[in-house]
């Protein structure tokens, strides 16, 4: 009964099917028919023109997107517990050629206009201090919290006013959209670039970088190749992305993961450190309680000394979620 | 009748099968059982200890390998038509943080101790000039020529004597090994790192970086993550690599591609620009002749104004190879 | 009556004199007799072998020193108000090719073994997190506090135990040494590299990078050239450094600046935010008080909303220091 | 009798004088009155608006200028013997974050529209190949040859047409201008950025980066700081530059060096490898002849096996030039 992460869950059968179908083509790189369909399909989904580039990891997606907005001498404003700061092995420093991350605190790993301003207003406009070039937010956040449309709008407005690019790390964008029960466009707001996550949601090895600025798309294409991320059999990545979009599989899968998370959340409401607005639960529990849960066969990560993190996935079994709910209720 | 490249050929059924089998696990990154098997399997194949890391592209493999040998202020000696110089979109400059490629001419896109010496001996040992830190050779070369064991040994000996690392780009290492009819160990010689190519040889999206120096392996692991190349479902890459090794599928596939190339070569012997020692043919032919071939349904790249490049793959059909042989003979 | 900074103070007459004398030579780069004397002179001063390289700025000195210890995928532990973090325009990100600064809080802008441990102990030894490669401390600190020999020793011991390099930013090393009334060697402790500052202490445009590891010196020489910091008339930088060492001018100048700072400190003891152990004073005072001081002709920087920073220099006039002391006492 | 180089020649008395005068100010960085005068003074000299930034070396000037034109994934077209390729220790790779130098052959180390086109036209407009972002030419060239106004214009026109920035390395711009007997503006043509050299021409440690694009100036200011090239006592660099401009000292000095070169050239006309259009002479002579010259007390560099390089400077003594002329004539 695995709740460690959604990042290595099984591949959805429809994704497998699409990948097999893609084997028929032999056009290299992103010259195949599937890759060429991506721009139109994602533009349609988001209701505005974008370029859609596949890459194999969320880290590559985030960093390539940011590289279109941030010069080497600039900085990205992000939450101090953002994935790009905590879990990407310094990839932003690599991709952005030494640009800085300006870390901002805040509830639920979310930024607000206030916290962004508090970080950037003290920066003197002189060459001794690194100037912000972009803001990056995570939808859903690293604590499983979803930005509402007005929250994104407020940050986007501040970013625009200050001349900053706005990037959204959407590793769990599907879960946020499903939770918010809104359109993709509403969940993304006026971001300039979005890392549209699929791997945690049933794909094997494909994320989409969505770039709403055509000039940025051109840069990202060169940078993707330069980073060794332009696969010669890219059709298999395109196939995964298209399979996720087809029939809204991305939402279907996310709803399943969210529902499992909600069931568990219901049983542990008083222990929750953050509202459950996606498929992650951060649950206060003692070492002894965690040990008891592990004895019952549940897999999960400790979260500091006094909590545990549980993540559901598109394929979390109903009985496993129910069992965890019972176990948490019974602690 | 496609002879454009082997880089986007179909995925071998045994690779598909292994990938499906890998779906059962859900251990993330390279913590799964398949990934953990790689070091032992490749060490066995090469008869000496190595660390084996999967990555999704040959560019990433080459650059991560070189990054273990070359400091940002150093240089890599390579052929002026090497893939790292010509076709990787500047990836070495990115991964090596601005280190330089020192370009060397030479027949068949091969280096020799003499040409390497001619490039590095004039470099004064002072800070005004970039010093070589490594040599990179391609097996088989960009013109489909295989280095014999004594040729690699001579370069390795020079590299060792000058304190340079030795990297081998083995995007078509299988084809070279099959042609030489020797062991993997003999085809690689005393290189410090090898990009063991599989994608052009029946895999979907996995190459192996083989590092024969344990300290280098540690650096490469951090750099792989930092480059966004550590896939969370890495088991699917490991599965591909293991499938290629299983029952020597890698050699089996390469032999098939080589045999098709030899059949075609036999029919165009007097037109060959380079000996055919792998699965690539560079064939002198006029624009009119190329047009005639295309009229007959053959796909291939022009190679300058007076030649064409034909590449066979593991799945080139016998009848297509025969047809091309006939067509070339009939020109 | 200027207390803005020591960083642009006049050049000491003996420095001018040495520079003029250097004009006689015409050996380029660091091949002149003066540059060649540096290793021996600094090795003598510190009582252990070191390589001494001139550079034109403290930023270059810090970053080139760190570049010998930190790989691009690593990190430097430093205080959150360290000069390298706050005031170098992102130079560490540039020179270290994207390596990270791990920021540590602490009284007086000083690190302790405890705060360093608190920063690095939670870092899991896996590739997802950036690993520390070095620690950087500032002597005297950014708040004008001097590390005692045992404090440096404790940090050096921790660094050694964890395999981390130890760098000391000595932009005001002279002031710290003068305050501690100890030898250069005692003030530096077992650091691996020291940025020996002269520019704030009477030189024009020369700092010394001292590298106590010969391998590091070799790297730093290449990196200095690569950063455009190898001046062809380097003899004028060497001359400045030698003039500072001659007759202990560096200590003489620092003592003068420190004495002026102490006189002022004596008059504002109850307003001091930090002990005055070099030539900087951080003084609590209201906006109105600051305005009053400015009306009296004193130049200085605001330090947040409720304080001011005063910096003395080697050439601060006794009457100016006395006047400031009186003015502060009279607030 | 020193003809090794002009790069370490004595500092002109008027430069010393200006530096001493600058000691009176204590405004830091480039906030002093002298630094603030630079834009206007250079704009006047060149007859169009530019930003003028001091830096301490030609390498820094070239690389910072190029960094305003070239993205990390791009390339600079330059001569294969350009200083940026041969003598800057890989600094372009560092400052341009791994961008490439595309090397072009050509007589006299000069580029022509034809050779530039030959280098860039074969580059396919796809992500596998590094795209040119700028062209860099050297005035006077590394072989002491001056570009005529129409030659620069032709290159500038090509650059503009292809969307490439145009940089001029003017380490010996003064010598070229003096030789051409034209205005600064005519010698520079329509370049986007110029490294205006002074150090080889009587200054101590100051070159000017001239940026004719205001947006580029902003980037260059941040990058200069980030590279550790923003000196806190920058007034001493500004003073040098202003002294060079004052009364056309830059031309006066260059004319002196050129005249000495011409005298020598006159005596060795049949041995010259390149026309002498600045202050460098490349003279065919055997090892025995070089030995004979050295015996007579002349200092110079060998240039390959069959030639020598002689460089005159602003302060080359008439009798030394005459002696060398006689000696060469007498070989």
Question: Can you describe what's shown?
Answer:
The structure is a homotetramer of 331-residue chains. In chain A, 43% of the residues lie in helices and 15% in strands. By secondary structure, chain A is of the alpha/beta class. Chains in contact: A-B, A-C, A-D, B-C, B-D, C-D. Chain A binds chain D through residues 71-73, 97, 127-128, 131, 219, 221-226, 230, and chain D through 71-73, 97, 127-128, 131, 219, 221-226, 230.
Short structural description:
Four copies of one chain form a homotetramer. The first copy, chain A, has 331 residues and is α/β, with parallel strands linked by helices. In chain A, 43% of the residues lie in helices and 15% in strands.
Spell out the CATH superfamily of the largest domain in chain A. Type I PLP-dependent aspartate aminotransferase-like (Major domain)
- H/E series of chain A, N to C? HHEHEHHEHEHEHHEEHHHEHEEH
Q: What is the 3D form of chain A?
A: globular
* Helical amount of chain A: 40-55%
Task: Assign the CATH topology of the largest domain in chain A.
Answer: Aspartate Aminotransferase, domain 2
**Overall CATH architecture of the largest domain in chain A:** 3-Layer(aba) Sandwich
Strand percentage of chain A, roughly?
15-25%
Whole-number total of structural domains of chain A: 2
Mean pLDDT across residues of chain A: 97
Quaternary state of this entry equals homotetramer
Low-pLDDT segments, ≥5 res of chain A: none
Mind telling me the CATH class of the largest domain in chain A? Alpha Beta
Main sheet of chain A?
7 strands, mixed
N/C terminus separation of chain A: 17 Å
What's the tally of helices of chain A? Answer: 14
- Record the strand order, biggest sheet of chain A: 1-7-6-5-4-2-3
**What is the β-strand count of chain A?**
10
Q: Structural class of the secondary structure composition of chain A?
A: alpha/beta
Domain Aromatic amino acid beta-eliminating lyase/threonine aldolase (chains A, B, C, D): 2-284
Family (chains A, B, C, D): Belongs to the threonine aldolase family.
Keywords (chains A, B, C, D): Lyase, Pyridoxal phosphate
InterPro entries (chains A, B, C, D): ArAA_b-elim_lyase/Thr_aldolase (IPR001597), PyrdxlP-dep_Trfase (IPR015424), PyrdxlP-dep_Trfase_major (IPR015421), PyrdxlP-dep_Trfase_small (IPR015422)
């Amino acid at each position: 009964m695995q709740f460690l992460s959604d990042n290595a869950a099984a591949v959805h059968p429809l994704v497998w099917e699409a990948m097999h179908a893609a084997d028929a083509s032999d056009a290299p790189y992103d010259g195949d028919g599937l890759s060429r369909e991506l721009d139109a399909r994602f533009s349609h989904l988001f209701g505005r023109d974008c370029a859609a580039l596949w890459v194999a990891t969320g880290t590559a997606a985030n960093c390539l997107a940011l590289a279109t907005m941030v010069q080497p001498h600039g900085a990205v404003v992000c939450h101090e517990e953002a994935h790009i700061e905590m879990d990407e092995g310094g990839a932003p420093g690599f991709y952005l050629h030494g640009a800085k991350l300006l870390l901002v605190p805040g509830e639920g790993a979310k930024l607000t206009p206030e916290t962004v301003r508090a970080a950037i207003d003290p920066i003197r406009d002189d060459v001794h201090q690194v100037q912000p070039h972009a803001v990056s937010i995570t939808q859903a956040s690293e604590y499983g919290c979803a930005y509402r449309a007005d929250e994104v709008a407020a940050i986007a407005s501040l970013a625009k006013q200050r001349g900053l690019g706005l990037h959204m790390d959407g590793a769990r964008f599907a879960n946020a959209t499903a939770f918010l029960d809104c359109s993709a466009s509403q969940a993304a707001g006026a971001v300039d670039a979005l890392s549209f996550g699929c791997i945690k949601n049933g794909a094997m090895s494909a994320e989409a970088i969505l770039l709403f600025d055509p000039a940025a798309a051109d840069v990202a294409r060169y940078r993707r190749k330069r980073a060794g991320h332009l696969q010669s059999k890219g059709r298999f990545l395109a196939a995964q992305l298209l399979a996720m979009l087809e029939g809204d599989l991305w939402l279907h899968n996310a709803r399943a993961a969210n529902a499992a998370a909600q069931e568990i959340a219901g049983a542990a409401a008083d222990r929750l450190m953050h509202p459950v607005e996606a498929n992650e639960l951060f649950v206060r529990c003692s070492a002894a309680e965690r040990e008891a849960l592990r004895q019952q066969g549940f897999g999960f990560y400790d979260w500091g000394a006094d909590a545990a993190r549980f993540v559901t996935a598109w394929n979390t079994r109903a009985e496993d979620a129910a069992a965890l709910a019972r176990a948490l209720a019974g602690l």
